[in-house]
Amino acid sequence: MQKRVLGRTGLEVSAIGCGGIPIRRAEIPEAVRVLQKAVDLGINYFDTARGYEGSETRVGLAFQGRRDKVIIASKSRGSTEDMLQRIEESLKALRIDYIDIYKVHGAGGSPETLEKALASGGPLEGIEKAKQQGKVRFTGMSGHRPDILAQAIKTGRIDVILVPFNFVNDLPAKELFPVAKEYNVGVTIMKPIGGSLFQHPDLCLRWILEHDAVSTICVGMWKESEVEQNAAVGRDPRPLNDEEREWLRLERLRWERCYCRLCYTCNPCPLDVPVRSLIIVDLDYRRLGLKTQMDWGLKEWLEAVKKCETCEVCQVKCAYDMPIKELMLDARRRYLPIVEDYK
Fold first, then answer.
1. Are 324 and 212 found together in one domain?
2. Residue 342: what pLDDT?
């Protein structure tokens, strides 16, 4: 497995890491086997979170007696005191006495969330206190806005970042990676295959690994076959050939008008159509299943889309010019029959 240095932490991490959301789907014994398989195949970086219910528990069980072989990152949010409490909860769930990287979860999402994260009494202060206590080695931050994460890096308080990056959502290469390089901050990647939406994961991962600013890719995996396929890329991350680049170019054209970059800069719909929820309905369907979406209110969301039929000009402004009205109506057409049949 190719190893890369995680910025100023000096940690050597596997080019392919493991993201902690999908592993929750597997029953605990199977999850333990999958995670241990990952280590056996050279993967040593594992990213989880307090908010990924059940994920930390599975990671903790898998690596009993293997602590020296893995680098563990987790994250949470809240006040300084909240963060200190959640770090204790993470340590207990992970069954370890220190966490390599602890991140402020989602703080790089807007100017407001960043300001709260950096403020006195905020979550980053909690991580810094835990670091002084020897419970955390390095500080981090996750978020979907590369421009906001770049601001965070410039404070000098962040060692590692976690950001979405793929062949469709490539803005971090321009807005974030040069700043991370300047400050020697480790770059870890989420959504490398679009939250499981894109085909040919091997090409998606190899495209990302051509960017030397990237230290590791946190790929969501919950089956041994996925671990084997993704680890194979880390063992042989050869450059893309012309045919493969052309395929990715055409795929980008297909996705760029319908793939949400999760930048959260769009304004709310004045008719109360839940655009931000429905724009990622396909992603959440694959990640979380139908039951979770039904519990969240998918049926009511789809009913609200009726208002789009009589709306002449959509008032929601997307930074990437996606056709919001068309995408809302399309989601209703596809998911309403499923919802009506759901029991």
1. no
2. 84
Same domain, 77 and 127: yes
What share of residues in the chain are helix, strand, coil (percent, to 5)? Answer: 50, 15, 35
Whether residues 109 and 218 fall in one domain: yes
E strand map for 1-53: 3-5, 12-14, 16-19, 45-47
Q: Which domain holds residue 303?
A: 275-341
Residue range 6-57, pLDDT digits in tens: 999 999 999 999 999 999 999 999 999 999 999 999 999 999 999 999 999 9
Cα–Cα distance for residue pair 273/329, rounded to 1 Å: 11
Predicted confidence (pLDDT) at residue 286 exceeds the cutoff of 90? no
Inter-residue contact 172 to 184 (CB < 8 Å)? no
- Do 115 and 152 reside in the same domain of the chain? yes
Q: Which long-range contacts (CB under 8 A, 24 or more apart) does 173-182 make?
A: 173/211, 173/213, 174/146, 175/146, 175/147, 175/150, 176/146, 176/147, 176/149, 176/150, 177/211, 177/213, 177/214, 178/213, 179/150, 179/153, 179/154, 180/7, 180/150, 180/153, 180/213, 181/213
pLDDT digits (tens, 9 = 90+) for 305-322: 999 999 989 999 999 999
How many domains is the chain partitioned into structurally? 2
Tens digit of each residue's pLDDT (9 = 90 or more) over 154-188? 999 999 999 999 999 999 999 999 999 999 999 99
Place of tokens 């300047």: 182
Region of residue 254 (left: phi > 0; alpha: psi -120 to 50; beta: else): alpha
Is 239 in the same domain as 287? no
Task: Examine residue 254 and state whether it is found in any structural domain, yes or no.
Answer: no
- pLDDT reading at 298 higher than 90: yes
- Model pLDDT, residue 289: 84
Query: What CATH number did the domain enclosing 110 receive?
Result: 3.20.20.100
Whether residue 94 is found in the same domain as residue 181: yes
| Sign of the torsion angle spanned by Cα atoms 269, 162, 195, 292 | negative
Q: What is the pLDDT of residues 259-271, one digit of tens each?
A: 999 988 999 999 9
* Residue 317 to residue 324: CA distance in whole angstroms: 8
Q: Residues 203, 111: one domain? A: yes
